[in-house]
Amino acid sequence: MPLPDHASVVRRDACHALAHERFDVLVIGGGITGCGVAREAALRGLRVALVERDDFAAGTSSRSSRLIHGGVRYLEHGHLHLVFEASRERRLQLQTLAPHLVRPLAFTWPVYRGARVPRWKLRAGLALYDALALFRNVGRHASLSVAELRDAEPELAPDALLGGFR
Ligand SMILES: Cc1cc2nc3c(=O)[nH]c(=O)nc-3n(C[C@H](O)[C@H](O)[C@H](O)COP(=O)(O)OP(=O)(O)OC[C@H]3O[C@@H](n4cnc5c(N)ncnc54)[C@H](O)[C@@H]3O)c2cc1C
Q1: Are 143 and 90 members of one domain?
Q2: How many Cα atoms occupy the beta-carbon half-sphere of 1 within 13 Å?
Q3: I want to staple 126 with a disulfide (CB 3.0 to 4.6 A). Which of 25, 84, 107, 141 is the partner?
């Protein structure tokens, strides 16, 4: 008879523990939310069990582009507190919780004539964004001239390009 593989043994032991032991918290779902909740609870000394019907991060969490974003897009809808909180969480991940996993990634934001969000509005929004991060973003936003933009991103279509931001 073939020996059970390691995963089957772990699973068998986990099912046995679930049936026979007492836990303080049962988390259902092993996506990023469930794993985060389980981790936080375990760090606080609680006995935690987690059940997942498929596999860790098998759901939406497997589709994520892995951006620990600061929520800049929520500004447009006036969700200032969310931006504040997202920036703070990002700073925590970057500096304290997971500096080995999180690293800065600059975004270049070109603005063309007739863009839905005009340049002045974007400038004001990004200034507010820096302020909500208490000016402790990875770096403050920078305004880019057309020449600077094309230097950074030579493939950008030049027609009607007004400049942009990073
Ligand atoms: C294309 C895309 C890109 C994204 N990019 C980003 C990004 O860059 N940055 C970012 O912050 N967010 C991003 N998101 C959002 C982010 O991925 C989700 O907010 C996050 O993954 C949700 O995690 P979750 O744990 O709540 O859900 P899920 O990952 O869906 O986890 C739920 C888990 O519960 C399990 N489950 C469900 N029912 C049961 C049950 N009855 N019993 C046991 N288990 C069960 C499922 O199998 C699943 O594994 C992106 C989303 C998408 C779709």
Answers
A1: yes
A2: 2
A3: 141
| One domain for residues 43 and 118 | no
Domain count, the chain: 2
Q: What is the pLDDT of residues 2-19, one digit of tens each?
A: 777 888 899 899 999 999
Q: From the CB of 32, is ligand 1 less than 6 Å away?
A: yes
Closest Cα to atom 10, ligand 1: which residue?
Answer: 67
How many Å lie between the centroid of ligand 1 and the Cα of residue 79? 22
- What lies within 8 Å, CB to CB, of 24 at 6+ separation is 41, 46, 47, 48
- Kindly tell me if the per-residue pLDDT of 1 is higher than 70: no
Whether residue 93 has its Cβ less than 6 Å from ligand 1 = no
Tell me the average pLDDT across 24-36.
97
More confident residue, 143 or 73: 143
Spatial separation of the C-alpha atoms in residues 27 and 46, rounded to whole Å: 12
| Domain of 153, in residue numbers | 72-165
